[in-house]
């Protein structure tokens, strides 16, 4: 496993773009395409913004034996629940979309409080 790259962003709207640009830069140095990772990070950081009262979110990416894993940590203990959206809903599709884009994803509570939401990216090269 390679050392992870990590960024801490304040939980505000402009941080979604900061996190997205950061992961594109990191994966670029690893020779990996960042398209799916940018969508994943956008969704997960937006979820922290919309559904928690966390002051910051930590975005981590690591290359492991099973592939590249993106993790987003926040201070909320509430685990994400996939929504049920209808044609008129403005939200509720993000986690379902995530399930189609990545090999697998999940969430786990952290021992000291908060949670990590993670996604195993599909293999790619640039």
From TrEMBL:
Q: Where is the Histidine kinase/HSP90-like ATPase domain?
A: 10-118
Its protein name is Anti-sigma regulatory factor (Ser/Thr protein kinase)
What Pfam families does the record tag this protein with?
A: HATPase_c_2
Name residues in a coiled coil: none
Q: Which UniProt keywords apply?
A: Kinase, Serine/threonine-protein kinase, Transferase
| The keyword Transcription is assigned to this record | no
Tell me which Gene3D superfamilies the record gives.
Answer: Histidine kinase-like ATPase, C-terminal domain
Q: Endoplasmic reticulum: present as a keyword of the record?
A: no
GO MF terms here are:
protein serine/threonine kinase activity
